[in-house]
């Protein structure tokens, strides 16, 4: 596969006549179904395969091919890639920050051993590989406001350590074997119709459902904890645009993307403009608070804006208005 590095002609999925065949791992997490919808609109329903180790719940409208894939089973992965002629792999399987601190062995297995399988499969079969990184790849000794693309990265969570490992391994495989590795550092992602699975930024999704359903919310972070956040549509569009960017335009392989930043207090104030009766109490979870206190408050993303035209659309007020409309109209 090192010969890819010197390939003269563009890879086949660059032509309109021949769209990529995409496999999404961890497809039933917060982002997979939404990304599959977007990619299916662009490349055709049957060219995007969603996969997970669980059965899709009945309320999940994934509307296209869905299969079992276990990233810890190399043979299973290889069979899927070969049988479906996969050319792009979006690797969304991961154990998130808060769950990872409660089960380090599982996080290490999924986030590090699983990633090794993914890197090997992608290299062996000449795939374009997208792996998300995160604000969690920074730590207390990183510059916080904003965190630059290149800086000290000494995270204090197994999730963060595994994501720094993914960034470094992917970039190494790119240089060593020509792997078309692409990585975005996502902020906390806010979505209406899918739930996050055990992160530190989850409060900023849960508060909307609580606000609409009960009018009360207990927040597990301190009211002044400022973190970078992004509405899911911006995140998924960034991912598609970055995946489609010509390799020659990418001066790096790991990019920060930034949209907005807010504290729980800012978010409550904005939601109360639509739902003035919302009552919020604070009951801080020390594990999540310690994680959040070591994360940046914003990401510096001029390289993404310069190299492949990244531009966010949702600031705090658009994000809140859109979330409340989606949830109130039952689109969840
Ligand atoms: C988490 O909170 O663990 C994730 C993330 C910011 O990577 N949402």
UniProtKB/TrEMBL annotation:
Upper taxonomic lineage: Eukaryota, Metazoa, Chordata, Craniata, Vertebrata
| Function statement | Catalyzes the NAD(+)-dependent oxidation of L-threonine to 2-amino-3-ketobutyrate, mediating L-threonine catabolism.
According to the record, the signal peptide region is: none
What enzyme class is recorded for this protein? Answer: oxidoreductase
Q: What is its EC number?
A: 1.1.1.103
**UniProt record similarity statement:** Belongs to the NAD(P)-dependent epimerase/dehydratase family.
Native organism: Gasterosteus aculeatus aculeatus
A GO molecular-function descriptor: L-threonine 3-dehydrogenase activity
Name the pathway it acts in. Amino-acid degradation; L-threonine degradation via oxydo-reductase pathway; glycine from L-threonine: step 1/2
NAD-dependent epimerase/dehydratase domain location, by residue? 22-257
Reactions the enzyme catalyzes:
L-threonine + NAD(+) = (2S)-2-amino-3-oxobutanoate + NADH + H(+)
The protein's name is L-threonine 3-dehydrogenase, mitochondrial
């Amino acid at each position: 596969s090192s010969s890819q590095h010197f390939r003269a002609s563009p890879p086949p999925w660059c032509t309109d006549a021949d769209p990529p065949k995409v496999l999404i791992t961890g497809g039933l997490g917060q982002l997979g179904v939404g990304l599959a919808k977007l990619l299916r609109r662009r490349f055709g329903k049957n060219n995007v395969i969603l996969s997970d180790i669980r059965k899709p719940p009945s309320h999940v409208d994934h509307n296209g091919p869905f299969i079992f894939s276990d990233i810890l089973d190399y043979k299973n992965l290889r069979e899927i890639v070969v049988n479906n002629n996969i050319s792009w792999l979006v690797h969304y399987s991961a154990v998130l920050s808060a769950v990872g601190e409660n089960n380090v062995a599982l996080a290490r297995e999924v986030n590090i051993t699983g990633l090794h399988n993914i890197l090997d499969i992608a290299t062996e079969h000449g795939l374009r590989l997208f792996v998300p990184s995160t604000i969690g790849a920074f730590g207390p000794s990183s510059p916080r406001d904003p965190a630059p693309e290149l800086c000290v990265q000494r995270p204090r969570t197994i999730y963060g350590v595994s994501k720094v490992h993914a960034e470094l391994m992917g970039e190494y495989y790119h240089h060593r074997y020509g792997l078309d590795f692409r990585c975005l550092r996502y902020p906390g992602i806010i979505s209406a119709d899918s739930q996050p699975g055990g992160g530190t930024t989850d409060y900023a999704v849960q508060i909307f459902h609580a606000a609409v359903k009960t009018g009360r919310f207990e927040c597990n972070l301190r009211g002044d904890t400022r973190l970078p956040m992004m509405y899911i549509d911006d995140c998924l569009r960034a991912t598609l645009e970055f995946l489609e960017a010509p390799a020659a335009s990418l001066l790096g392989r790991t990019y920060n993307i930034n949209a907005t930043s807010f504290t729980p207090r800012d978010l409550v104030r904005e939601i109360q403009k639509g739902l003035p009766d919302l009552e919020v109490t604070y009951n801080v979870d020390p594990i999540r608070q310690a994680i959040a206190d070591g994360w940046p408050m914003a990401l510096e993303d001029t390289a993404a804006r310069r190299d492949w035209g990244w531009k966010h659309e949702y600031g705090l007020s658009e994000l809140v208005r859109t979330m409340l409309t989606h949830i109130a109209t039952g689109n969840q």
